[in-house]
Amino acid sequence: MTQPSNTESYLRMYTQMVRIRAFEDQANQLYLSAKMPGLTHMYSGQEAVAVGICEALTSDDKITSTHRGHGHCVAKGAEFKQMFCELLGKEEGYCRGKGGSMHIADQSNGNLGANAIVGGSMGIATGAAMSARARGSGEVAVCFFGDGATAQGLMYEVMNMAALWKLPVIYACENNGYSEYTRTDEIAAGSIVARAEAFGIEAHQVDGQDVLAVNELSQKLIARARKGEGPFFIELMTYRYHGHHVGDINREYYRTKDEESDWKSNRDPITNFGRWLTEQGLVAPEDLAAIDADVYKDAEDAVAYALAAAYPDGSEVDMHVYAPTDPATLRVGG
Amino acid sequence: MREITLSKAVNEAIAEEMRRDPTVFVIGEDVAEAGTPFKVLSGLVEEFGTDRIVDTPIAEPGFMGIAVGAAMTGMRPIVDLMFGDFLFLVMDQLCNQAAKTHYMSGGKLSVPLVLRTNMGATRRSAAQHSQSLHALVAHIPGLMVAMPSSAYEAKGLMKTAIRENNPVVIFEDKLMYQDKAPVPEEEYLIPFGQANVKREGTDITLIGTSSMVQVAEKAAEILAGQGISAEVIDPRTIVPLDEATLLASVKKTSRAIVIDEGHQGYGITGEIAARLNEKAFYHLDAPVCRMGAMDVPVPFSPALEDLTVPTPERVAALAARLVAGEMLHDA
Ligand SMILES: Cc1ncc(C[n+]2csc(CCOP(=O)(O)OP(=O)(O)O)c2C)c(N)n1
Ligand SMILES: [Mg+2]
To answer: Is the beta carbon of A235 within 6 A of some atom in ligand 1?
Structure first.
């Protein structure tokens, strides 16, 4: 018999996955109706990865995220309103509208930010782990990145150092089968996990559509990383439902509709987890439907709020270029 | 007052700040037991241990990125980049990540780190170990750039750099490591954005950075022998730049040469000259002139290398022509 505390965690994971899906559906609508400046990259289909991992983290633990980062941001605890405000360039956004979709950061929940440079945050996550150890904080850092980022040299430089120094960092490679419009097997020679293993890093491959499998593995590795047994590497096999970005509509030239519908109908992380929850008798189908309805309502409300919210004042354009330093600390004895 | 080398001054600054603040640490190649190839950090590992004087593999982008992440989460890393020429390897982490994080996060995250590296030709080190690349980073909003001209500046600016809540790149002239200057025993800091008038004068302003301050001072001596009074100014930091002091001087002297060891083309000499032209044009009796390094890769042969950087004689010669009101170019 499953523990009640597990059920609580299961329902939280279910809800968080639905929240990500709802967020992305709304973001896509904002793009299609020309209400959102710029482009954005949808996380839909990959929800179990961010949620399975972040459910195993505390809010002090750090993550670094990617251009496809809304899922990580929601899973790490962010609120819809500030997120939509950021996507729309509004003052109330997490970054006062200065970052947008590709740079959304939520320091209050340990999200050190999305990154528009593929592989650009590998060092940041590793440094956050080094800092956690130096400060004795007990925090763990998780670095999210795509299969495409495994082609960046920076990854190998920092994994080498993380392994040498046994840093509490987890490299989470979301292998969604594509980097932009190119299949992963065309850009990745050999095995991705073997690359981490070459540094002596324990590496795992897991079904990224199975939130329980992801969470179970993450719980173990994160606990071990906290004890100084890190770093670890996880390759999470997953799939993105939308195009590379919201504007990538006609994509038959690089992947088939059959392939897409196979993943959506047979391997959807939310549907499958919802079915499992009801099959186990942990929750009634109506309860899940009620969760879905609540979450979608929240998302719609947040969009309406963000659309009506104010843009930053023009005077903010040259604010935050430099951080203030207390003049007292710059004096002798300061 | 006691005199110490620039190398010792940097070492003292880092040691003092590491004693003061446990979040400060050094990261780079051969920084610990070796104390860097220039021996600038010798002795630090004995006092602070290998947890705070961290030797890395030869992976500049990697340890630069690690420093950015550490800085974002409560530490104050001092990144040791063995040669300024290796800046090209760390540009993404420095310019796309460190420089922009505070802005992109709407002021929520900050990156208090120091990247200490070097500059300067005429060491017979050829094109990949001799460049002065400060203009490259000065171009990127979000970075601060300090250019110490002596042991005194090296210590005071380093201490400020470490306490700053922003990424600071500090360029030490590698030919000056053994040069001594008076440095007080007592603690002091040099604020950023405050130029230093090294010598007062009335006929022409010579603005020099780093080792070019000495070149300007020697040029001023030559000029004094010719009855020309040159004012010498060291901006000390080029970002932020103390425009007010430079402008006040140029308005007084009505002429200026900006001397710097970076390439002249698209370099900081042009930037400073343009600001003086824009803001002091009606006070000028001659065009503000630039003297940077030649726009060639730094050659190895001493016979060639010495031609590429400004010298006191060439600065004095140009200054004399400006003061004489000579046309520099055919009209
Ligand atoms: C350094 C760099 N090169 C190229 C790009 C353009 N780009 C943006 S996303 C992307 C694909 C990344 O693929 P992957 O890492 O697998 O992430 P996914 O988009 O599949 O989530 C590319 C090439 C970039 N942003 N940064
Ligand atoms: Mg991918």
So the answer is: no
Q: Coil, strand, or helix at residue B262?
A: strand
- Collect all residues of chain B within an 8 Å Cβ-Cβ radius of residue A64: 69
The domain defined by B3-182 folds into Rossmann fold (3.40.50)
Ligand nearest the Cα of residue A41 is 1
The residue type of A139 is: E
Interface of B with A in 143-202 (CB under 8 A): 144, 160, 163-166, 186-189, 191
The pLDDT tens digits for B40-49 are 999 999 999 9
Tens digits of per-residue pLDDT, A51-108?
999 999 999 999 999 999 999 999 999 999 999 999 999 999 999 999 999 999 999 9
What is the pLDDT at residue B331? Answer: 58
Centre of ligand 2 from the C-alpha of residue A147, in Å: 5
Q: Are B73 and A62 in contact (CB under 8 A)?
A: yes
CB A220 within 8 A of CB A156: no
Q: Give the mean pLDDT of A219-237.
A: 98
Q: Å from B255 to nearest chain A CA? A: 32
- Matching fold, domains B3-182 and B196-324: yes
CA dist., res. A93 & res. A72, Å (int): 16
- Is the CB of B57 less than 8 angstroms away from the CB of A157? yes
The partner residue sitting opposite B109, judged by closest CB among A93, A112, A334, is A112
Q: What is the fold, at CATH topology level, of the domain defined by A7-330?
A: Rossmann fold (3.40.50)
Q: What are the domain boundaries of chain A?
A: 7-330
B60 carries an active-site annotation: yes
Q: What is the CATH T-level fold of the domain B196-324, as seen in this structure?
A: Rossmann fold (3.40.50)
Domain boundaries, chain B: 3-182, 196-324
Closest residue of chain B to A139, computed from CA coordinates = B73
- Atom 21 (ligand 1) nearest CA: A146
Residues in chain A: 334
Size of the A and B interface in Cβ pairs below 8 Å? 170
ipTM over 0.85: yes
Taking CA atoms, A281 is separated from A9, A275, B107, B124, B136, in Å, by 15, 10, 47, 78, 63
Average pLDDT over chain B reads 97
Element (H, E) at A124: helix A122-135
